[in-house]
Each structure stands twice: as structure tokens, then as C-alpha cells.
Amino acid sequence: MFCIFQMKFTFLLLCSIFGCAIAMRQQSVAVSGRLVCGNKPASGVKVKLWDEDDGPDPDDVLDEGFTNNDGTFRLEGSERELTNIDPVFKVYHDCDDGILPGQRKVKFRIPNSYISAGGRAQKTFDIGVLNLETIFPKEERDLL
């Protein structure tokens, strides 16, 4: 009798795990643009594409890199989530920063309309040309 109960429990557990795995949807996003500091290209600036999550699920880095010599960049990444991913583009820079410790950190939410199903982004969010001399609302400092 106990063996039959254990087999049913194991079967239900496996079905639950399989169901959750199928419900997790692969989603992707891409962002591109050009960063400047005043009238000069912001080359070598660290840029990251994140999936910021609420609750117990930790945030995930989808892609990261540095701007090219002309200040251009392109990031693309994907993640499996039960709900829609929440893509955020972050820039870590020292433009117009003086001698303050750490780097200025600004973040931009990417519209949901740029989230694609599957592992490759179907369209790229062009954030345009950003002048990093701008003081952005809710700007932070990255001290690590």
C-alpha cells in the first residue's frame, strides 16, 4: 500500500516539475545606441542589460560590455521566466564626474513591446544618442 502511494506521489511530483518547466518561456531583448560625454564619444563605458525581478527571484544580467571607440554599443540577451521579463539598460560612467568615488549609474527601462519570444530578439530598442553629462532622475552611484 505504501509503495503505491509513493509511486503516485513521485508521478505527481514529476508532472508538476515538468509542467513548471514548460510554463517557463524563453524571452529575449536587445538594445543599441551611442553614448557621448559632451561633444566627444564616450568610449570604453560599461553597459549592462538586466532582467530586474521583484520578489525572491534574483536579478539576472542578460548581457554586458563596453562602448566602442565611437561610443556605440549593442547588447542582447535572453532569459526563461514564467512571467514577462523586466528589461533594464544600465550605464556606469565617469562623465562630468570630477573626483567623486565610484561611477555614476543610470538605468533605463526598455518597453515591453521590445521583448521577443524565443532566444533571439526580433527587434532592437534604439535608445538613440545619450549625452552622459545629463543629470538623470534617480541617478545612483556604483561604489563597487
Explain how this protein is built.
This protein is 15% helix and 44% strand. It has one domain: Immunoglobulin-like (Sandwich), CATH 2.60.40. It is built from one helix and ten strands. The termini are far apart. Mean pLDDT is 86; it is low at 11-22. The protein has 144 residues and is α+β, with helices and mostly antiparallel strands. The strands form two sheets. Strands 1, 2, 5, 8 and 9 form a five-stranded mixed beta sheet that branches.
Low-confidence stretches: 11-22
* Number of helical segments with 4 or more residues: 1
General form = globular
Fraction in helix: 10-25%
Count up the domains: 1
Instruction: Please give the alpha-carbon distance between the first and last residues.
Output: 58 Å
CATH architecture: Sandwich
User: Briefly, what CATH class?
Assistant: Mainly Beta
CATH topology: Immunoglobulin-like
Write the H/E string, N to C.
HEEEEEEEEEE
Q: Which class best fits the helix and strand makeup? A: alpha+beta
Using only CA atoms, what is the Rg? 21 Å
Number of strands: 10
Percent range for β-strand residues: 35-45%
